[in-house]
Specification:
five-stranded mixed β-sheet, 11 strands, Fumarate Reductase Iron-sulfur Protein, Chain B, domain 2, Ubiquitin-like (UB roll), Rossmann fold, alpha/beta, four-stranded parallel β-sheet, 358 residues, 14 helices
Length: 358
């Protein structure tokens, strides 16, 4: 049986439009319809530009994917409203068609080690991995995750080239140090790619300097909610592997502020090359919370407190905006719900940003 889906389609002509815009449509889809079927049906209603000759790469509801995915799978994972954009809006030419010169140029850094046929194969294979990277929003000279996967292929095929290839990807201005996980960026992400990149990190002598021993925090439990957060707006940073904090926020009767950036990777390894890069990503997360009127932001652990609270003044410098938003951990929040009000017992006396709601 056909089902209804609501489309918000990115439209832009670089020759005539000053700014992009979205057009809305209501469409029907069948159980086995792919995204390419949806695009073709939409194109019959109103012409727009997209690549209907090959597998088309898209960004839908902040996830990167190919047109081969089932519409039903995307709806199930995201929403009945599909915001469809090109994989890079800043490189858009016509609607879903983009200028891919940057992607090609960053394959060309391996000119001495690849044949023309290999380069063409990589051009078709790794576009999503390149454009899905959040790193490009903060460092557009980054060589790209596709370059890291290509580097691994070259090393495996030609072990004698290992040191030369590692020298290329370890560049302090645009190399592997700026990698951010694609786990929450690509639809049905293949995690073996992240394992490949982490193994490349381990081959680098400087990598050991970025390793910090993490203490496992015991999770406290809610025993009795004796004070709630009714009328509070609370955002969360869940991290790339962290547990969702939405449920506990709603348990507290607060209004949950859903951040697009709540699962972004802070790229803590980047400090070996650029001490401010992680702060820029953290700043983007904090500013989204601030602009959505969050009273404070909750994080999963003390490690995140070290970034979002202890470094917040430095984060303000990197973003050139005042932030001043309190940050508390999940354990601290649970203690608050259980009735604790003593700032010292809660650990709030150690925070850089004052917890003003007590």
């Amino acid at each position: 049986m056909a089902k209804e889906v609501f489309i918000e389609l990115f439209r832009f002509n670089h020759k005539t439009d000053y700014l992009p815009y979205f057009k809305k449509y209501t469409m029907m889809y069948e159980k086995n319809d792919k995204l390419i079927d949806l695009l073709n049906n939409l194109n019959k209603i109103e012409k727009f530009d997209f690549d209907n000759t090959n597998v088309c790469n898209l960004k839908i509801n902040n996830l990167y994917l190919t047109s081969e995915e089932l519409v039903s799978s995307v709806v199930k994972k995201t929403s009945k409203t599909l915001e469809i954009s090109p994989v890079s809006t800043k490189r858009a030419l016509n609607d879903l068609i983009i200028n891919q010169d940057d992607f090609l140029q960053k394959i060309n850094i391996f000119d001495d080690y690849l044949t023309k046929e290999q380069k063409e194969d990589y051009f078709n294979k790794y576009q999503l991995e390149y454009y899905a990277s959040n790193t490009l929003n903060f460092n557009d000279s980054y060589i790209g995750d596709h370059a890291l996967l290509i580097a691994d292929d070259i090393i495996n095929s030609n072990p004698e080239l290992k040191n030369k290839i590692l020298d290329i990807i370890a560049d302090k201005n645009n190399g592997i140090w700026y990698h951010t996980s694609l786990k929450n960026k690509i639809f049905n992400y293949d995690n073996t790619q992240e394992e490949i990149i982490q193994n490349l990190f381990k081959m680098l002598p400087d990598f050991s300097q970025t390793q910090v021993k993490k203490e496992i925090e015991s999770l406290e439990e809610i025993t009795n909610i004796s004070q709630n957060f009714l009328n509070f707006n609370i955002a969360s940073y869940d991290g790339i592997n962290g547990n969702s904090l939405e449920s506990i926020i709603k348990q507290s009767k607060a209004n949950f502020i859903n951040l697009v950036s709540k699962n972004d990777d802070l790229a803590l390894c980047s400090k070996i090359a650029n001490k401010n890069f992680s702060l820029k990503i953290a700043g983007n997360i904090l500013l989204e919370a601030k602009d959505k009127n969050a009273d404070f932001i909750m994080v999963n652990n003390e490690e995140d407190i070290l970034v979002f609270d202890k470094e917040q003044k430095n984060i303000e410098k990197t973003t050139s905006r005042e932030i001043n938003i309190p940050v508390i951990s999940k354990n601290q929040f649970i203690r608050l719900l259980n009735g604790e009000k003593n700032p010292t017992k809660l650990g709030f006396d150690l925070h850089k940003i004052k917890i003003s709601f007590l």
